[in-house]
Specification:
By secondary structure, the protein is an alpha+beta fold. It is built from 9 helices and 16 strands. The chain has 2 domains: about 230 residues, Naphthalene 1,2-dioxygenase Alpha Subunit, Chain A, domain 1 (Alpha-Beta Complex), CATH 3.90.380; about 120 residues, Rieske [2Fe-2S] iron-sulphur domain (Rieske Iron-sulfur Protein, 3-layer Sandwich). Helices cover about 25% and strands about 30% of the residues. Helix 3 packs across helix 9. The structure holds FE2/S2 (inorganic) cluster and fe (ii) ion (FE2). The site of FE2/S2 (inorganic) cluster has 9 residues, from loops.
């Protein structure tokens, strides 16, 4: 079959087939898509409170694939997101969060202001046309939404329009009372493809089969999936409650999950490592003053471990010579179908290059 046909996803879910398994198994497709998608979309960075005391916060974005070193800096109310690579010979300037009023490269001592402007370069007496704008650190686009900072290496993909939907649906969510809990946050390395992790998140179809504990907490009949722009929202009522929502689960293309609970917000960031390996960071933001959050997190981790087992199994399964693609449940897998359409669009654009 023509390669393009393998990755075309019919808009009509009732006749569509899922992505061909070569999508998950092909190293070149993995590399091309990770580079295209992750360098053009907005990505989660950190919470403003994380740069309150230590005002310099470096991020090694996708260390195994894109490996782009950037840093957020704060000077009073001014925030900057800049390259963390020295403009002299390319040393990484800052390794870990710290407090300071300048950035100093330890290789040959070049100093930059917190806005990235080169301040001082020892030993460059006699260098002509120096310094120039090329000696300053590059600025990286960032956005602040309710004190959460997002960045984009190349802001061509507008994947954050859904944030206004969150503001509209959750007008009373106490963003100002959230605090980042490092102790309740987690990071997992999973033997699966990053897209499989997202696909699993995008359907509640598996909940009664895989999450026996969670299935008792939510009313599965009330489970709903809404397709938004570059985003999917899922929600369900609490068991035995007609109006109390258990959670709002927002997935934002390509790799971000914002899970709103009555105790706070859990942010999941999915990081591709290889076709068989994915890191998922769970950043936990409890609402100040709410107790017994440890129990809630314990339940979340239980659900997470159950999810990890199935996505690891799928990653092995799609390598079978007897599997190529499957069908979508029109009732339960709208979210997966939408995700595949977004991936397919980018994939087909790259194939025809
Ligand atoms: S590489 Fe930074 S001062 Fe030389
Ligand atoms: Fe799950």
């Amino acid at each position: 079959m023509n390669q393009k046909n393998l990755y075309k996803i019919d808009k009509d879910i009732s006749i569509a087939r899922t992505l061909d398994s070569s999508f998950y198994n092909d190293e070149n497709i993995f590399k091309t898509l990770v580079t295209d998608i992750f360098s053009s979309t907005w990505q989660y960075g950190l919470h403003l409170n994380q740069i309150r005391n230590k005002n310099i916060y470096p991020i090694n974005f996708l260390p195994e694939t894109l490996s782009e070193s950037i840093t957020f800096t704060r000077e009073d109310d001014t925030i900057n997101c800049i390259s963390n690579v020295c403009t002299h010979r390319g040393h990484i300037i800052c390794d870990s969060p710290k407090k300071g009023n300048a950035l100093k490269c330890r290789y040959h001592g070049r100093v930059f202001n917190l806005d990235g402007k080169m301040k001082n370069a020892i030993g460059f007496e006699g260098a002509k046309n120096f310094p120039s704008v090329n000696d300053n650190l590059n600025h990286i686009n960032y956005k602040n939404w309710n004190n959460f900072l997002f960045f984009s290496l190349n802001k061509t993909y507008q994947n954050l329009s859904v944030l206004s939907d969150i503001d509209r649906r959750l007008p009373d969510f106490p963003f100002e009372k959230l605090y980042f809990s490092e102790q309740l946050s987690n990071s997992f390395e999973i033997n699966t493809h990053w897209a499989m992790y997202c696909e699993n998140y995008l359907e509640g179809f598996h909940v009664p089969f895989v999450h026996k504990g969670l299935a008792k907490e939510i009313d599965n009949k009330s489970y709903n999936t809404e397709i938004l722009k570059n985003s999917v929202l899922q929600y369900a009522n609490k068991q035995d409650s007609e109006k109390d929502l258990y959670a709002h689960y927002y997935w934002i293309f390509p790799n971000l999950m914002l899970n709103f609970y009555n105790w706070g917000l859990s942010i999941n960031v999915v990081e591709p490592i290889s076709i068989n390996k994915t890191r998922v960071n769970f950043f936990t933001f409890p609402i100040d003053g709410i107790d017994f959050i440890e129990d809630q997190i314990k339940d979340l981790i239980q659900v997470e471990l159950e999810d990890q087992q199935v996505v690891e199994s799928v990653c092995r399964g799609v390598k079978s010579r007897f599997y190529s693609s499957g069908r979508y449940s029109p009732r339960h897998e709208k979210g997966v179908h939408y995700f595949h359409q977004l991936l397919s669009k980018i994939l087909l654009k790259n194939i025809s290059k």
